[in-house]
Design goal:
single chain; alpha+beta; GIY-YIG endonuclease; 79 residues
């Protein structure tokens, strides 16, 4: 299973979109500083996630959520 997830920084309210096979472990990595991009923006809280059985579909949806129209979709429907 593949999780596409959205977390929010409690420091500056920014969002991070990612993909993982182990959601709990990945959020812990964001919060303990072992994720390079998000280390300065912790702590994070999970906002939304979706489970995919197909890796290609999960990657495509993550890519979409990071695009301009995907960000608009996120802001209107997911947060």
């Amino acid at each position: 299973m593949y999780f596409v997830y959205l977390i929010q920084s409690q420091q500056d309210n920014s969002f991070y979109t990612g993909i993982t096979e182990n959601l709990k472990k990945r959020i812990n990595e964001h919060n303990n500083g072992s994720s390079v991009y998000s280390a300065t923006k912790r702590p994070f809280i999970p906002v939304w996630y979706c489970i995919f059985s197909n890796k290609q579909r999960a990657l495509a949806f993550e890519k979409y959520l990071k695009s301009g129209s995907g960000i608009a979709f996120r802001n209107k429907h997911l947060i």
